[in-house]
């Protein structure tokens, strides 16, 4: 995938990709909007040791997207010989052989030449096709790698990511620093829960990128890589995808490495970069992102559009920045683009995160502002509840939503417990007590219910809005954006929510 991206962009072509585990409709929802000319695809992939075939989807995508002129298939599950009988398909080895021996030259193009098309998660409607400019992405990523990450040529950079998440684009930009980029294909917990720490030891990783979900899973599994693995080369742990809670910080320093720099970073697909992230010359404070991005006027606004500190509000960027999207694809007059980011506060980018600037100059992210809970008019970030609930050893993960109730809203918490456990009155009382003692009585859920699975996007993010739709008997949109859409059935028609 990296080779193909570099080849395409060297010509000035626009690069767009999805993860190979997307279903047919998810691929059509994305590529169908941008009319690609060339489709590159693996014949399949392996996850958790199980092979998954992609060829039927590739054939159907070609059939349904008329703009596709060429299909290049990379042998992965099969040999090139097995695939040789495919009609109207160029095999990857043949494509490479045609170009072998030629020096790679990048065409010199304008700063704003389109580089990538990325896609919003699509959980609230058709995914937005976000066009990013080459110059802006290069500046943004080099700033983040070199200045915020202190990247050097001798670094070995790893980030666990799918090919459909913007962190893949961010990871590959590490090549611009001269460092070695380490790629990984497969589950982060198979064939055993230590597989990524084994990779870190074997490849002498200096930068290890992961998610709060992985750290929580590692802690629940009782992993202690500081004791079981040689991580002496590791100097920086990066974490994104969801708010990183206090206990995640504790686990990293107690069980992974005591002298590592842990940098929680936050931005998004829309900017293909970060609004708040790490800093090699500042201390790390438990539960906080170290600082705001250099050259970015990141503020927190109250509901009246006034900048506030040490108060929760909307994360905004009040001045242009290098990796602002060039446009949305097929958006005449940038109407949808402006409506998405500049409608709430005219002329100011409103990102949709509920955040707070701290006394240290750092930042805390409390979750998406469109998922904020508002019982009795008090705004509560979902992460404030997650960080309390998931400290309990019985709880593997949780999701919280607001339910319309008697002219107001009430907080409903769903929990996935360890195998073999059942939610009883004693555990419900412990969960409520944990939240009441460490947050406020307002944070205590009115209902706590057990589920066997919790739906997430393919990049591992919780989908509170889709769950909120289901419990209100509304149909969630674009289920293809979810890694496990079948999990939504567990939230539907719950009699406990009727009283």
Please render the helix and strand layout as text.
Layout: H1 2-10, E1 15-16, H2 24-34, E2 38-42, E3 44-47, E4 50-53, H3 55-64, E5 70-74, H4 80-83, E6 90-91, H5 92-99, E7 114-119, E8 129-133, H6 134-148, E9 156-159, H7 166-172, E10 180-182, H8 195-203, E11 207-210, H9 212-220, H10 225-228, E12 236-239, H11 246-256, E13 261-264, E14 266-268, E15 273-277, E16 291-292, E17 298-301, E18 313-317, E19 327-328, H12 335-342, E20 349-357, E21 363-368, H13 382-389, E22 395-405, E23 408-417, H14 425-438, E24 447-450, H15 464-471
Parallel strand pairs: 1-7, 2-5, 5-6, 9-10, 9-11, 11-12, 12-13, 23-24
Antiparallel strand pairs: 3-4, 7-8, 8-19, 14-15, 15-16, 17-18, 18-20, 20-21, 22-23
Helix pairs in contact: 2-3, 9-11
């Amino acid at each position: 995938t990296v080779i193909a991206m570099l080849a395409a962009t060297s010509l000035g072509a626009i690069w767009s990709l999805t993860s190979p585990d997307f279903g047919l409709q998810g691929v059509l929802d994305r590529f169908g909007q941008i009319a690609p000319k060339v489709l590159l695809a693996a014949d399949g992939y392996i996850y958790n040791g199980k092979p998954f075939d992609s060829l039927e989807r590739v054939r159907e995508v070609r059939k349904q997207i008329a703009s596709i002129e060429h299909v290049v298939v990379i042998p992965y599950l099969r040999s090139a010989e097995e695939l040789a009988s495919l009609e109207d398909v160029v095999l990857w080895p043949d494509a490479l052989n045609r170009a072998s021996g030629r020096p790679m030259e990048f065409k010199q193009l304008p700063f704003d030449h389109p580089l990538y098309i990325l896609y919003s998660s699509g959980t609230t409607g058709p995914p937005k096709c976000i066009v990013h400019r080459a110059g802006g992405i290069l500046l943004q990523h080099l700033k983040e790698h070199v200045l915020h990450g202190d990247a050097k040529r001798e670094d070995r950079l790893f980030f666990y990511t799918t090919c459909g998440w913007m962190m893949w684009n961010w990871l590959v930009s590490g090549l611009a620093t001269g460092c070695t980029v380490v790629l990984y294909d497969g589950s982060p917990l198979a064939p055993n829960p230590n597989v990524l720490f084994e990779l870190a030891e074997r490849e002498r990783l200096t930068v290890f990128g992961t998610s709060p979900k992985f750290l929580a899973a590692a802690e629940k599994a009782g992993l202690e890589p500081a004791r079981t693995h040689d991580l002496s080369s590791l100097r920086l742990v990066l974490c994104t995808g969801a708010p990183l809670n206090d206990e995640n910080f504790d686990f990293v320093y107690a069980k992974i490495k005591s002298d590592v720099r842990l940098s929680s970073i936050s931005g998004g697909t829309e900017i293909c970069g970060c609004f708040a992230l790490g800093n090699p010359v500042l201390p790390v404070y438990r539960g906080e992102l170290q600082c705001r991005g250099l050259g970015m006027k990141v503020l927190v606004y109250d509901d009246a559009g006034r900048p506030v500190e040490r108060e929760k509000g909307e994360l905004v960027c009040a001045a242009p920045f290098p990796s602002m999207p060039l446009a949305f694809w097929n958006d005449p007059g940038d109407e949808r683009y402006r409506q998405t980011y500049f409608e709430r506060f005219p002329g100011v980018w409103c990102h949709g995160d509920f955040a707070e600037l701290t006394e240290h100059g750092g930042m805390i992210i409390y979750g998406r502002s469109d998922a904020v809970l508002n019982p009795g008019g008090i705004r509560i970030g979902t992460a404030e509840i997650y960080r309390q609930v998931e400290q309990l050893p019985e709880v593997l993960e949780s999701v919280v939503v607001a339910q319309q109730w008697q002219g107001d809203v009430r907080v409903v918490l769903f929990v996935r417990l360890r195998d073999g456990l059942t939610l009883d009155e004693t555990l419900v009382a412990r969960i409520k007590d944990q939240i009441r003692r460490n947050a406020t009585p307002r944070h205590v859920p009115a209902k706590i219910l057990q589920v066997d699975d919790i739906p997430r996007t393919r990049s591992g993010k919780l989908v509170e809005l889709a769950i909120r739709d289901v419990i209100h008997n509304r149909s969630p949109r674009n289920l293809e954006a979810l890694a496990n859409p079948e999990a939504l059935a567990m939230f539907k028609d719950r009699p406990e929510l009727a009283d």
